[in-house]
Every structure is written in C-alpha cells, then in structure tokens.
Known about the structure:
Layout: E1 2-7, H1 11-20, E2 26-32, E3 48-49, E4 60-63, H2 70-74, E5 83-86, E6 101-107, E7 123-128, H3 131-144, E8 147-150, H4 153-183, H5 192-204, H6 207-210, H7 214-217, H8 220-227, H9 232-248
Amino acid sequence: MISIVIIGAGNVATHLFRALISSKNFQVVQVYNRTKENLGFFKDKVDTTSNIEQLKVADIYILALKDDIISTVAKTLPNKDALIVHTSGATSIKALTGMERGGVFYPLQTFSKTKEVDFSQIPICIEASYRDDEVILEKLSMDISKNVYKIDSDQRKKLHVAAVFVSNFANYMYTIGEDICKNNNIPFEILHPLIIETAEKATKIGPLSSQTGPAKRNDEAVIEKHLSLISNEQRNIYKIITHAIQGLYGKEL
C-alpha cells in the first residue's frame, strides 16, 4: 500500500480524500492544514495535524494548496525522498524545483465542498520529472478516475485558461441571468433546462456548431432591444460577447 499525506484541507483536498478512501493501492495516512479549525471534516476519518513538524513520513505528498505557497510549503516537507506533487492547473512543475522527485496531479473539475462529484469521471492531468514517478501517478489516477492524461506544464497552463472560460466565466453568465430573472420576478429554474441543453450540445456536437442566438443571426433589432433592458455593466459584457460571436461567424452572416 502506497502511503499519501495530503497537504491542505480545501475543496480539492476534501474531494480527493473522499475518492481515495476506496483505493486498494493507495492510502491517505494524514491530512495537514495550518489552520486546525479547517480539519473538521477529516476528524475521525484519518490522522490530522496543523503542525508541519508532525507530518508523517509518506511515499507521496499531495500539495492541494493555493498556487503562491506551493514552493514554500514543499521546501518544509520532511521526507526529501518522497514524490511531491501539486494539484494546480496554472502552476508549472518548476515550482517544485529543488525537490528530488516532483510532479503534478491536476484533477480538472470545479469543486465545492457541499457538492459531491463522481471522481471516476473527472479528467486527471499528470506530469512527473521521472518516468518511474509518472507511472506511479498514472496508477494513482487510474485508481480513482477513468480519464487520465499526460499533460506537460505548458499545455496545462493553456488548459487552465480554457477551463476558466468554460467554467468560471460561464458560471458568471449564469449569475447575470439569475440577476435579471430575480429583478423581474421570474424563477431562475425556468432557465435550468436551457443551461443543461447548451452544455450537452457543446460536448456532443461541439461549441462551434452549437451556437445560436441573435448575435450569430446578426439580428440587430433583437440585440438593441436586449441592450435597452439591462444595466450598464451587463450592457458592456453583452456588447463584447456579441461582437466576438459576430466576428467568429461573420462569414456566415
């Protein structure tokens, strides 16, 4: 059994721990977080500590941390012979320069502690300084997911930007839609089937083929009506996205 210590107690750490509970080849032996209060979820499930000097010796240390502290925390780990990996999409493997064995274990998904996910469907992007460690990360990934990809640091940074567009930015659009509904006494759930259908079409036939709406049709009358109904900030966003869509499909108009 390969032992793992998870460093961090946030969204990624929580869901990763849940997934690894069922692993037959890897075992989380400890979870560390510098704030003791944030370790509540892990109590009675695994050994926990808020003292970095009390970290257990393990085969793998997974740093599920904010990007700007990955390097600093990595240097404090006691077992210099262990495989040390981070879970960041935007941070290079070079953040672990100085470690004997460095790697990346990046689960590509949006995580919230209150929303359970099926980890077996989550893509995991791996990278390692050595081929033997890549094999270990591959086994770890395949233990909890059906989707494993070898993605280097440069690719992963671009992938992370793409993820921000399709997840974070898309979700912000939902908040605008919800705000417009609330301000006009319309239940937001009316839009739920549309959100689901749009996402399903994008994954099945591709986003380029899925695009519909007044911007693609170049329906200026509808566009002007929409602009008259929304706030200044929403209007600016609407104009930028409309212009981008028109530019993309300009040859078809």
